[in-house]
Design goal:
Length: 157
Amino acid sequence: MFTYADRIKPDGHTITTYLENLIAKRYQIPTFQRDVVWEKENVKKLWDSIYKFYPLGSILIWKTSTQLESHRQIGGIKFADDFHSNEYQYILDGQQRTTALLTSIYGGKIEKKDNFDPTLYIDLTVELTDSTDDISYTKRFLFWDEIDDNNGQIKAN
């Protein structure tokens, strides 16, 4: 017998697979979700957790045959207005982490943060001091405006 509880199940997708699905526009964010509110520090702490192999928490995806009228952009990725499918996948929980992951790797734009370049750079020479190190991430993960570019000699790539 099929129950509603059978419909809720975890999928073991890797971060890479999740990001590939985002780039392929398989997930959408409904407009009833709040705006992106994370600041630089939140993004750095997320990447510090990944660096330390800590759990990231879950991301709740609603799979449905219902098409909502409008969607938010994810990292500047705009879905075509004529996007149709038999199944829609909406991100109901995890929008902040999703946007941080996508834009810190691939760049892009975050709505209402026009002057912010979300691309994150990693200095792998910065080592952890011990298992409780909660400081080194501030030097390991940097946004371009935090990098000393030697008076323009170092260029973003």
